[in-house]
Amino acid sequence: MNCLYCGHSETKVIDTRTVEDGRAIRRRRDCVECNRRYTTLEKVEETPLLVRKKDGSLEIFDREKLSRGLLKACEKRPVAMEEIEALVFSIERDLRNQYSREVTAQQIGEMVMEKLRYVDEVAYVRFASVYRQFKDINRFLEELENLLPKQK
After folding, report:
1. How open is the CA angle 26-66-88, to the nearest 5 degrees?
2. Which HAMAP family would you find in this protein's record (predicted)?
């Protein structure tokens, strides 16, 4: 790693820490030539995961969009922010493991619902009502009936 200030090729690593849930490494460096310090961040380059929407269009997977949807479903529920972050991390990891380049929005929605069911039932029903676009109360009741036997 060349020094940011003088361009010298020899630096010492003073401190190393993992950041971003272990997905990156932060290093504090010291140049042996000019003695200045600076920080570098090393990340794995990931190929973008593409999401095929219902209308056939493609967009890049956005973990923030997933996080916002889960936050909305869990609003005013006893679900810790750490649980939501862990859920987002788990879903993204599973998507990247199961699908190499492209995934459908439907596959993401089903995965979210499967995992959210065990985190908070009310949040699950909220998410399902938006995701499955319940048109009337009967469709809502059907989803609740599907949830109840799985509890027993």
Report:
1. 55
2. NrdR
- In this prediction, residues 26-31 reach a mean pLDDT of 95
Contact 25, 1 (CB under 8 A): no
- Which range marks the domain in which residue 22 is found? 11-43
In a domain, 85, yes or no: yes
Does 6 fall in a domain?
Answer: no
How many independent structural domains does the chain possess? 2
pLDDT-based confidence at residue 66 (cuts at 50, 70, 90): very high
**Looking at the domain assignment, is residue 4 inside a domain?**
no
Residue 60 in this model has a pLDDT that exceeds 90 = yes
pLDDT computed for residue 12 by the predictor:
94
| 1 found inside a domain | no
Residue 52 CB partners (closer than 8 Å, separation 6+) = 58, 102, 103, 104, 105
CA proximity to 67, closest of 103, 125, 112: 112
